[in-house]
Amino acid sequence: MGNQKLYKGSLQTIILKLLESNDKMYGYEITQKVKELTKGELKITEGALYPALHKLEADGLLDVEVAKVGNRLRKYYKLTESGTKETANKLDEMQEFLRTMQQLVNPKLSLE
Amino acid sequence: MGNQKLYKGSLQTIILKLLESNDKMYGYEITQKVKELTKGELKITEGALYPALHKLEADGLLDVEVAKVGNRLRKYYKLTESGTKETANKLDEMQEFLRTMQQLVNPKLSLE
DNA sequence: CAAATATACATAATTTTCTTATACATAGAA
DNA sequence: TTCTATGTATAAGAAAATTATGTATATTTG
Questions:
Q1: Which of A93, A104, A105 sits opposite B5 (nearest CB)?
Q2: What is the nearest nucleotide to B30, using C1' and CA?
Q3: N or C, which end of chain A has less CB nearby within 10 Å?
Q4: Which SS3 state, helix, strand or coil, does residue B62 take?
Q5: pLDDT tens, position by position, for chain A (112 residues)?
Q6: Could you tell me which CATH number the domain at B10-105 has?
């Protein structure tokens, strides 16, 4: 907590992208994967993650499948068909955002 | 309206960066400059812009100077000393964000 | 000349998306 | 046995937008 350098709105994109790469994942696994990929720089908090997963599911972008491992619950999420499409859209939007920020922050680069 | 592709939290950085490049600007001018630099892709709405300017001013990052042009008001904003420092911080954070997103979205690239 | 558009500021209600704190429960390590 | 890890969840509140108005002057266009 407290070290968040993420702009708001990017969490959905991260979740979707991870599910595109990893087929199915559960919540806790996502938090660990993000920590690993960013070498600890970024920590996804549960308070942000679970509501986001629930929303993506409610919006029909994710399917959920409950598994019991030992005596504990896991909820595996995977992309639906429309989730796969939306992932592509979100990634495009992110590229667009990066380009836009580049134009604003370093206009010289876009002249050539 | 409606075409916003900005992640929340990036508007402050944009404003600060523009003021770093242009010394002093007024609100409407900022909206036009952003439109120009992004070739119309990005439109800063007043409902976001003016509260953001007021907050930056309240936080001591901007100074304001009211000018009368014809019969109309203009409020010119410029960076204070601490605003200049904060601009550097915000730009660093943005670079950090870009790197983090790169690690998450295209992990292959960060291997080399 | 009238009407539409551009210039210029502002705020209020609402929504989205976080942070922070709390809660519950099992499993493993110290 | 206590601390940490694993695993999910929600509630209160804050931050930062969107959307919709409101007010006023200046300019362009039909």
A1: A93
A2: C8
A3: C
A4: strand
A5: 345 678 999 999 999 999 999 999 999 999 999 999 999 999 999 999 999 999 999 999 999 999 999 999 999 999 999 999 999 999 999 989 988 888 888 777 665 4
A6: 1.10.10.10
